[in-house]
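Example for tutorial group B:
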């Protein structure tokens, strides 16, 4: 088992009863799950690719999720004009994956970036009391905060599934 259910840091008490608290709690738990899946690994292990030709790695997931947090909360919900953190040399997307190399400084920067984006998102969410508040996507479509939160939960859930498989391939560790 990955972690003793009695000491699982994702379990914080009774189930939330309102919509906003429920969404925020699921997002918090999935963020923590990503951290747990990467725990106790060195730079080489974090940068290990899944299977060719994929460029997916745990380190790439951390970098990708930093950009996802940045996009949805800063660009869409607050309208900040911030660039992607990770782009390929040709300016295209995918730099989160291709730049995820086995270098301790790259690992440290990725975690710093992810934690910074999560903290910014959390500050925004702490002041957002209306799940119907609208953000605007780069193509001009409006999207309510509720949809952004559900999307973020989906994004983390999907990638935590990838992280399960990547971690198992690295050291055989499996679990909830």
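The residue assignment follows.
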């Amino acid at each position: 088992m990955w972690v003793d259910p009695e000491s699982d840091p994702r379990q914080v008490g009774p189930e939330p009863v309102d919509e906003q608290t429920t969404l925020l709690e699921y997002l918090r738990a999935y963020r923590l799950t990503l951290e747990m899946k990467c725990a106790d690994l060195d730079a080489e292990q974090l940068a290990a690719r899944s299977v060719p030709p994929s460029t997916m790695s745990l380190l790439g997931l951390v970098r990708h999720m930093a950009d996802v947090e940045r996009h949805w909360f800063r660009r869409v919900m607050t309208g900040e004009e911030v660039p992607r953190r990770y782009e390929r040399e040709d300016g295209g997307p995918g730099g989160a994956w291709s730049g995820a190399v086995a270098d301790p400084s790259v690992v440290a920067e990725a975690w710093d970036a992810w934690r910074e984006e999560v903290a910014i998102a959390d500050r925004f969410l702490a002041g957002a009391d209306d799940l119907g508040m609208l953000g605007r996507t780069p193509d001009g479509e409006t999207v309510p905060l509720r949809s952004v939160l559900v999307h973020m939960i989906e994004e983390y859930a999907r990638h935590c599934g990838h992280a399960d498989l990547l971690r198992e391939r690295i050291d055989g560790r499996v679990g909830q």
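The longest strand covers residues 134-136. Compare this with the pattern of hydrophobic and polar residues in the output above.
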